[in-house]
Amino acid sequence: MSRSAVTARRGRPRSQRSEDAIISATTQLLTNEGYARLTLSRVAARARASKSTIYRRWPTKEHLVIEAFNRWPLLVPRDRGDLLSDLLDLYRQSLRILYRPPSNAIMPTLIAERARNPALAAVFDPVMQRRREPVRAVLKRAIERKELPRDTDVELAVDALMGAAYLRMYFVSGDLTVKGMRKMFAMLLRGLGARGHSS
């Protein structure tokens, strides 16, 4: 093996460690000080990396923040046999992933900043579309099982279910137990005309 190949192979782990340190620093600053005070200079200092290293990988602060967000695990749309069970399974996963530090501090910050920051919205919205996919999947599966009407507007249903869950998780005091969410989801499913949830 050539000397240059050996150097390249050794360089990759260092590069990965540097990238991980940058993402970790970004997450810490977002959690502790918020979006407004986060700068690439402060990230570089905390990660012990150069700003040029950051700029080579992420051209703007917004791209760096979304990269940190995008590393959170995705929900898995497992088939639990019926729509309500599928939704509650996704909710349990959300609690493990999104409602514990640092996620529980970062998500409301990003949502609030997105509303007034077009640059952040431009990179945040495509990521959130992918994050909606597990809920889409369980709704489409429910339509195939004839639990939901064939003409169900899946995107509006995703809005209603995720919006209600996120509102309770992040912005208002409410019952976050599975029993409490079961009651809320059941009410929403009645509104969607789901089989077995009629009033």
Explain the overall architecture:
This protein has helices at 3-33, 40-47, 51-57, 61-70, 83-98, 103-114, 118-131, 133-144, 154-171, 178-191. The longest helix is centred in the first third of the chain and has 31 residues, at 3-33. By secondary structure, the chain is an all-alpha fold. Residues 4-11 have low confidence and may be disordered. The relative contact order is 0.10. The chain has two domains: 3-67, Orthogonal Bundle (Arc Repressor Mutant, subunit A); 83-191, Orthogonal Bundle (Tetracycline Repressor, domain 2), CATH 1.10.357. α1 crosses α6 and α8 (133-144) crosses α9 (154-171). The chain is built from ten helices and no strands.
CATH homologous superfamily label of the largest domain: Tetracycline Repressor, domain 2
* Overall domain count: 2
Give the CATH topology of the largest domain: Tetracycline Repressor, domain 2
Mean pLDDT: 89
Radius of gyration using CA atoms only: 21 Å
Low-confidence stretches: 4-11
Give the biggest beta sheet: none
SS-based class: mainly alpha
Total beta strands: 0
Strand content: under 5%
Quaternary status: single chain
How much helical structure, as a percent, in the residues? over 70%
Distance between the termini: 72 Å
